[in-house]
Specification:
single chain; 341 residues
Length: 341
């Protein structure tokens, strides 16, 4: 979602990420960011913009507008492009088939962004985020993590192939943090996990509730059986419902059911993730301080060596691009930077 924390930080500044979405959308317009592709269309619409249609303003300012994969593919390379493909977060890779999604993939969006940005002669900065990997990790949804990570890997391939015959492009691939202590554990039943075809979030929406808003046990049994191919015992069903009922500490309360589903599947298939109770007690929903890898290629990449403080990453990039590191001041130079995470 283009107004979410990571992409928004490269084009806007607001006091609160949760309440500042509409403000972020306005700042992206005010700063005339060249290419904006992703979810979050509702934040640009009149309802959240005090009656003003911000998408129409982008169009009046000369932006090409796309809302589907087909439109993105066929649009005649405008100088500036706004593509909004979902009201909020774009669908998980796992769910695109069952939902008949018309959204482009991350590699497709990245490729289009490169096509547009590379036509200038002053260089550019491109940030492409595999945002939903983190969401899958919060849910301990191992199958979803795998699918989202593969799509991100394909995105890196697109950028590397684009830059392979150039000597003016720095590519940096990293994450801002790790979530849920996820690991490819020796005991994990990979074969069973690969058979799952929808996300834990999709499964949560298949559950039914009684008049007291309690989960119907029969729907838990049928959902796990149909979508996760797991036959839960009566005790496991009761425990699942009790966990949902008692878990009021989540930083994202709207995900208490799908996160519980993911943890149940992960436990059943012996996947390496933090216990659900650890996530519930976390103020971030399961972020950890585990080290994350940083990969880099191109001019300036030699500086990405050894253990690096996370706040030094931006300094290394701006130095490689020949831009003085002065917060709030930006000047285009003749170098391209692709920043993927």
């Amino acid at each position: 979602m283009v107004v979410d924390a990571t992409p928004a930080a490269f084009g806007a500044s607001v006091p609160n990420r949760w309440t500042g979405g509409a403000n972020i959308a306005r700042q992206l317009f005010d700063k005339r960011i060249d290419v904006i592709l992703g979810g979050g269309a509702s934040y640009f619409e009149a309802e959240k913009q005090n009656g003003e249609d911000l998408i129409a303003k982008f169009k009046q300012a000369g932006y090409g507008i796309t809302t589907t994969k087909e439109e993105l593919s066929s649009i005649n390379e405008p100088e500036k492009l706004l593509g909004l493909f979902h009201p909020t977060y774009m669908n998980f890779k796992l769910d695109k088939e069952v939902l008949h999604s018309q959204e482009p993939s991350l590699p497709e969006m990245t490729s289009k962004a490169l096509d547009i940005l590379s036509r200038g002669d002053k260089g550019f900065f491109l940030m492409a985020e595999g945002a939903r990997i983190d969401h899958m990790e919060h849910a301990a949804d191992i199958t979803g993590i795998w699918k989202e990570t593969i799509e991100f890997d394909q995105t890196v391939k697109v950028v590397v192939n684009w830059a392979k015959n150039r000597n003016d492009t720095l590519i940096v691939v990293l994450a801002d943090h790790e979530t849920m202590g996820t690991s490819a554990s020796e005991t994990m039943d990979i074969t069973a996990l690969k058979k799952i075809r929808v996300s834990s979030e999709y499964m949560s929406k298949q559950l039914t509730f009684d008049k007291n808003n309690e989960i119907n046990p029969e729907s838990v049994v049928s959902t796990f059986k149909k979508y996760a191919h797991i036959s839960l015992t009566d005790q496991e069903v009761d425990q699942f419902i009790d966990n949902v009922r008692k878990n009021k500490t989540l930083v994202y309360p709207q995900h208490q059911i799908d996160w519980e589903i993911g943890s149940t599947i992960a436990r059943h298939h012996k996947a390496g993730v933090a216990d659900r109770s650890t996530r519930a007690a976390s103020s971030t929903g399961g972020h950890t301080a585990n080290m994350i890898p940083v990969f880099a290629s191109g001019p300036g990449s030699e500086a990405f060596d050894g253990v690096i403080e996370n706040t030094d990453i931006s300094k290394i990039i701006t130095k490689a691009a020949g831009v003085p590191f002065t917060p709030g001041q930006h000047k285009k130079r003749g170098m391209n930077t692709s920043f993927l995470f």
